[in-house]
Design a protein that fits this description.
globular; alpha/beta; 7-stranded mixed sheet; 7 strands; Rossmann fold; binds S-adenosylmethionine
Length: 266
């Protein structure tokens, strides 16, 4: 798929080279051991995902995952019996997810597509899920509108994006602002240049809700092991994380139900 925008191409290159959740994997790529490691790391670091994804609730329902990455959440929806569709802009991420489905003999429909321009009709899905994706795309509001467009009225969405008033952002401000002699550098510029792929954005709860105007939606902030990283691959133990206030957590999850009236496409 050709991408017309250079920033988007840069995002794609980043994730092609660093498929999500695979860094530090000691096993040869695309082997059973490789995927088992990816899954166990995720279960260890992000056990709270289950409470949002609700895998078993979507049996026989049509689910879209926007930004499948290496496919860890995706396989869980399919194992639980959902009719799954997945997109990602990164070719290597989609290839990894494909491989994973093949290993487990699971059926899913994957495509290399842009979350800002989803290749699906209006009102098609029962559930639209996206974990840590739409803050990486150039036009996050457009991706949110696409999520609502393809969702059936009464369908549910669950979208995780990064939280600006979090310990991760505070540390980034210290490291890339204060310690580099740039105390007035904005968090937006730090996030753009230093939080994973180029152009990453971070949101307040209010800004996150504003991405889904006119919908009944709520926000949950989640404290994550990434909120206190003490070395490149060393994170806060999950149990300790529970002692910290969740409102300072890096993950901001917006969950809601699509109203009968479509939102203004703007
Ligand atoms: C942090 S990873 C999250 C992946 C997966 N949801 C997970 O939790 O492991 C971000 C993903 O978003 C994808 N992405 C970024 N911009 C995108 C876009 N415009 N369209 C589709 N996928 C995009 C990247 O390729 C990458 O796989």
């Amino acid at each position: 798929m050709a991408l017309r925008s250079p920033p988007k191409e840069r995002v794609r290159q980043f994730w092609d080279q660093n498929p999500c959740g695979t860094s530090g994997n000691p096993h040869p790529p695309s082997t059973h051991e490789f995927f088992r490691w990816v899954e166990s790391e995720r279960d260890l670091r992000e056990p709270f995902i289950a409470q949002f994804a609700q895998w078993t609730e979507w049996r026989d329902q049509r689910v879209l995952e926007m930004g499948v990455g290496a496919g860890t959440d995706h396989v869980k929806f399919i194992r639980a019996g959902a009719k799954c569709f997945g997109v990602d802009v990164s070719t290597s991420s989609v290839a990894l997810t494909h491989q994973r489905l093949r290993f487990e003999d699971l059926q899913g429909k994957l495509s290399v597509s842009d979350v800002e321009d989803l290749p699906f009709p209006d009102d098609y899905f029962d559930f639209v899920y996206s974990w840590g994706v739409i803050h990486h795309t150039e036009n996050t509001a457009k991706a949110a509108r696409e999520a609502l467009r393809v969702l059936k009225p009464g369908g549910r969405f669950c979208i995780m994006i990064y939280h600006r008033y979090s310990l991760v952002c505070l540390q980034a401000k210290l490291v890339y602002g204060l310690l580099r002699g740039r105390p007035f550098r904005s968090l937006d510029s730090i996030a753009r240049d230093h939080l994973e792929s180029f152009g990453t954005k971070v949101f307040s709860n209010r800004q996150a809700l504003a991405l889904f105007p006119g919908q009944s939606a709520r926000v949950t902030n989640v404290m994550t092991p990434y909120d206190l990283r003490y070395a490149r691959h060393r994170f806060l133990p999950p149990l300790l994380g529970r002692l910290l206030p969740s409102f300072l957590g890096y993950f901001l999850v917006v969950e809601g139900t699509k109203g009968d009236r479509a939102t203004d496409a703007g």
